Automatic annotation (TrEMBL), chain A:
GO terms for molecular function: branched-chain amino acid transmembrane transporter activity. It comes from Patulibacter medicamentivorans. It comes from the Bacteria. The lineage of its organism: Bacteria, Bacillati, Actinomycetota, Thermoleophilia, Solirubrobacterales. The keyword Chloroplast does not apply. Its main location: membrane. Pfam families: BPD_transp_2. It is found in: Cell membrane. Keywords: Cell membrane, Membrane, Transmembrane, Transmembrane helix. It is a multi-pass membrane protein. This is Branched-chain amino acid transport system permease protein LivM (TC 3.A.1.4.1).
TrEMBL record, chain B:
The keyword Transcription regulation does not apply. This is Branched-chain amino acid transport ATP-binding protein LivG (TC 3.A.1.4.1). It comes from Patulibacter medicamentivorans. Residues 1-31 are annotated as: Disordered. One of its GO terms (cellular component) is plasma membrane. Pfam families: ABC_tran (PF00005), BCA_ABC_TP_C (PF12399). The keyword Translocase does not apply. Gene3D superfamilies: P-loop containing nucleotide triphosphate hydrolases. It comes from the Bacteria. GO terms for molecular function: ATP binding; ATP hydrolysis activity. SUPFAM superfamilies: P-loop containing nucleoside triphosphate hydrolases. Residues 42-289 form the ABC transporter domain.
């Protein structure tokens, strides 16, 4: 029977709670990463295509401070995030005056520069080997949570290894989502939307638009760096290949799926994209492994093409803002 | 579904709301005598702006007195819009001097020029179409602590200002008969309504001087006359100063205290409408090409 079905589903994975916990963690990380894109693209109209570069900076600075400079993990986190914000401000001052499309290209270039430095400045970054010795503090914290909390509710088993990370990631994602939603409902958010609509009109009304765009990019860099740190705890290895531009593009897929200017759409979009990406592993296409992994991206691409064609505002976006923005 | 458009509305007679502050001295009753007005508010001296090889503005000099309506005319390509953009900081001028109320605004960025008290409109209306009409208005108001990140994070002290601005905005919208549209997206407004919204939005910045770039362009004659009527009332009742670029010479001659004529990047004549009309250089510039 099995061989007769071209698209048979194998249920082996469904037994593994750890698989789904892992999917949940990645969805949470993509939510955090894409919150920054939502602020930039959805609210400010700046096409930041270098978001994964900020994640790389956050992860590398944290990992290197802990492993090579013996910093405390908890102290390294805010310093890494602060460093990413500084880089964003410098990058923004140089590139935010560019026209939108050139800015997009400059940001891709930025994230690739970060990755190539990580690959080639071996003395500092350990090259392609990556950095590993930074997880001890997190591991012991995670173990404590499992023993003290999760054991009591029947989730102490080894398959719930990543449960503490899942909880921390989603609490952080939701808090950041609510914070950004709060910020963008203010007069500050109104100026960002005005810049998105027509920067010259905003300038004619006395708004220092460069300053607002820098703030937007800086906040995106901060959440991006935080997403990078969470990813470093999930992998747990900080290596150049974890920060390919592809991951920024997946962030855009999340953004389009959830809907521009919808904060809840980011979380829902991340869950859907991550579910589709991972659940398609379970479908037996009758192809080789590498063909199957390409097939997953073809499916995500198709979903996005159909969405843009038939529901350009995404799941939660406002149709009026799509249609009237000209 | 057809709303009464301002295009069919009568010439503005409604009371000006208190939302528009008095910004200049009250001029004498009736029309200003030629050359009158307060002190010089805007002084443009020898301003040069070139784009690569082309000298769009080639040493323009003129002054605008407070509480007057001045128009800037000239054939196509005379450099009127470039001069406008040089004064407002959108195209930083290469040389010269620009002072506003005694302070230099030469090469100041657009937001600083706006904060100094100069509001401008654009040749093609720039309504923020994917935002509600009321947000277009609120955005323009100065002194909003809620626009800082700290104010956005802790909005407790900013709500009173927001409420006050909302009332002010609604008053202004009512003046232009746009109050029923306050919560609609600006993109749903007609072309004429967008022109009015842009005018109302400029007033929301509490300007001392308003620069209008071709206010009559793309507007039906009735609405055009109405815009001119508002401009006159804002000048006589609130002491506001106006400078506008316009091709409609009839509107220019009927509404200006002073007319500045440009050709080939230079100011070739400057005076009352009557003086300018008789000026041979102006006639040459319009009929035969400058210097012909």
């Amino acid at each position: 029977m099995h061989e007769l079905l071209p698209l048979a589903i194998s249920f082996d994975f469904f037994n593994g709670a750890d698989f789904w916990v892992g999917v949940g963690v990645l969805a949470g990380i993509y939510t955090v990463l894409t919150l920054g894109l939502q602020l930039n693209v959805g609210f400010t109209g700046i096409q930041n295509f270098g978001q994964i570069g900020f994640a790389a900076i956050g992860a590398y600075v944290m990992a290197l401070l802990v492993s090579d400079a013996d910093w405390s993990f908890w102290l390294a986190i805010p310093v890494a995030i602060g460093f990413a914000v500084c880089v964003a401000v410098v990058l923004g001052v140089i590139t935010l005056r560019l026209r939108a499309d050139f800015f997009a290209i400059a940001t891709i270039a930025f994230s690739e520069i970060v990755r190539y430095i990580a690959q080639n400045a071996r003395g500092l970054t350990h090259g392609n080997q990556g950095v590993q010795d930074y997880v001890a503090t997190w591991r012991s914290f995670s173990r404590d949570v499992r023993h003290d909390v999760l054991d009591g509710i029947g989730m102490g088993g080894v398959e719930f290894n990543q449960m503490p990370l899942l909880i921390v990631t989603w609490i952080a994602a939701l808090l950041l989502l609510l914070l950004l939603r709060h910020l963008t409902k203010s007069p500050w958010g109104r100026v960002l939307r005005a810049i998105r609509e027509d920067e010259d009109a905003a300038r004619a009304m006395g708004k220092n638009t460069l300053r607002f765009k820098l703030q937007s990019l800086g906040i995106a860099a901060a959440v991006g760096a935080f997403a990078g740190i969470l990813l470093a705890l999930q992998t747990p290895n900080v290596a150049p290949d974890n920060y390919l531009p592809l991951y920024t593009f997946i962030g855009y897929a999340v953004l389009i799926l959830g809907g521009l200017t919808s904060w809840w759409g980011v979380a829902v979009g991340a869950l859907i994209v991550q579910f589709v990406l991972e659940a398609t592993r379970l479908i037996d296409f009758g192809l080789t492994e590498s063909q199957t992994s390409s097939m997953r991206f073809i499916i995500v691409g198709l979903v996005i093409i159909l969405l843009v064609a038939f529901r350009p505002q995404g799941v939660f976006g406002k149709r009026e803002e799509m249609v009237l923005g000209d | 579904m057809t709303d009464p458009t301002p295009d069919e509305a009568p010439i503005a007679t409604a009371e000006l709301p208190d939302a528009i502050p008095r910004v200049g001295p009250t001029p004498a009753a009736g029309d200003l005598p030629p050359g009158a007005g307060g002190a010089v508010l805007l002084q443009v001296t020898d301003v040069v702006k070139h784009f690569r090889g082309i000298r769009a503005v080639d040493g323009a000099t003129f002054a605008v007195r407070e509480g007057t309506v001045t128009s800037l005319i000239g054939p196509n390509g005379a450099g009127k819009s470039s001069l406008f953009n040089a004064v407002t900081g959108f195209y930083p001028p290469d040389r010269g001097a620009v002072t506003f109320a005694g302070r230099s605004i030469f090469r100041k960025p657009p937001y600083a020029v706006a904060r100094a008290g100069i509001a401008r409109t654009f040749q093609l209306t720039r309504a923020l179409t994917a935002m509600p009409v009321i947000d277009n208005m609120l955005l323009a108001a100065p002194h909003q602590r809620g626009e800082s990140l700290a104010g956005a994070l802790f909005p407790f002290g900013t709500r009173a200002r927001e409420k006050q601005l909302r009332e002010q905005a609604l008053e202004l919208l009512a003046l232009f008969r746009l109050d029923t549209k306050a919560d609609d997206y600006a993109g749903t407004l007609s072309g004429g309504q967008r022109k009015l919204l842009e005018f109302a939005r400029a007033l929301m910045t509490e300007p001392r001087m308003v620069l209008l770039d071709e206010p009559m362009a793309g507007v039906n004659p009735t609405l055009g006359r109405e815009l001119m009527a508002y401009m006159q009332r804002l000048r006589t009742e609130r002491g506001m100063t106006f400078l506008f670029v316009e091709h409609d010479l009839e509107a220019v001659m009927a509404n200006s205290d002073q007319v500045v004529v440009m050709a080939q990047g230079r100011v070739i004549a400057d005076g009352t409408p009557d003086e300018v009309r008789r000026d041979q250089r102006v006639i040459d510039a319009y009929l035969g090409g400058a210097g012909g």
